[in-house]
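Input record (Table S2, row 423):
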Amino acid sequence: MGKAKKGSLIIVGAGAAGLIAASELAGKFQVTVLEASDTTGGRIRTIDGMEAGAEFVHGELPLTMELAKKAGATLEKTGGHFYQVSDCDWRRQDDIIEGWDLLLQKMEALKDDITLDAFLETNFAGGEYEELRRRTRAYASGFDVADPVKASVKALYREWSQGMDEMYRIKEGYAAITDHLQQQCEAAGCRILTNKKVKQADWEQDRVKVYTDDGETFEAQKLILTLPAGIMQRKLASHSINITPPLDSYDTAWEQIGYGSVLKILLKFKEAFWAEQQEEVGFVISDQPIPTWWTQLPYDEPLLTGWIGGPYALQWDNKTDEEILEHAVTSLSRIFRRTVTDITALLESHQILRWHTIETALGAYSYETPLSAEARALLMTPVAGTLYFAGEALYNGPHPGTVEAALYSGKEVAERIIGDLAD
Ligand SMILES: Cc1cc2nc3c(=O)[nH]c(=O)nc-3n(C[C@H](O)[C@H](O)[C@H](O)COP(=O)(O)OP(=O)(O)OC[C@H]3O[C@@H](n4cnc5c(N)ncnc54)[C@H](O)[C@@H]3O)c2cc1C
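Output record (flavin-adenine dinucleotide complex):
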């Protein structure tokens, strides 16, 4: 390997973490971002005004709000009510799970962290708790995309006991934030190269050589890897990177991070037919095969989003998109008491996203396991002041929302490198 130019940096991945890191470092150092896809944004993917990936801002999150403001984007609170629909019976629901208070009390009292499944089997074993167990597992899977067999009770307690903050949407789309960061980076002289899938990274102290699958090589003094945890966990995945010399303890640490998927269904209609059924429909959780749906309130878009999170998302892998669409329409026809023919006639377009099959992501976002805090601490430690990891899975702060986590992590790594290069 030749001598690396001092202050040269390569960032792999142009999602939220990679772009914010690049924007902090551009102008100060020579920064090249290598992105496998043909666009930037990563798991932020706004297409024709619809959010195929991240959608909500989970409260007043400092970095997200600051960037949205700088991007000239507008945040609006989500509107509408939360409904539970079972056997065609609509109920406004504030508590998602009956017995929620008792559940939280027992979670709080837990001494040593265990998985959610183990906790439910120990603390809520009886037949009288069957529904509570089912709903708790469904909530952890649906909202946190967490597998109850692996998810940490202490982490879920920290999150659930905070209550639900007001949620916001970005009117111009989440991509307003990543587009803004990209512009900032490029204006400061950073190169962002798309269609550059990194296959190999060779490193020694203060030198890295990175190989992309089109045969190009790039050299720099330092390397930031912002790949999704799902890719870092799968050595044989099409987008995984062979790091030489290998980092065995880091590979083991990636295994301890929980990473879940989502099946997201976007259905665009000619009109918002649900407004006739019930006033102000915001979110619906039902007893249907595709249980969770939401509207775009406060915007009057005739769009319904279906969601299956966590291990349940994978159970649909043996179905074709057409079959999933059929289940979606049938679920909606039962929830809103309209015929399948009616709903089909109103349907204008659809998108079905199985995030675990999208090669650049292999899932949706991370969750905590009882072992992930220690693993994360190692992964956040730079290797020989040369290799740095960032991304939504490597956040240890107080705020919910994984885009915020990605932004925070990218910014933190950039600040660390600025410090390291100043020494
Ligand atoms: C369906 C869905 C819904 C979500 N909803 C929300 C939400 O409502 N609120 C929220 O806060 N978060 C949400 N998230 C999570 C949020 O989108 C992510 O946490 C965040 O965007 C991750 O940013 P990142 O930079 O860490 O990773 P990414 O955005 O995944 O960036 C990593 C980049 O690396 C690139 N890459 C991968 N392999 C290679 C390679 N070998 N070479 C070069 N480049 C490579 C990828 O293409 C990608 O661009 C959602 C995610 C999904 C999928």
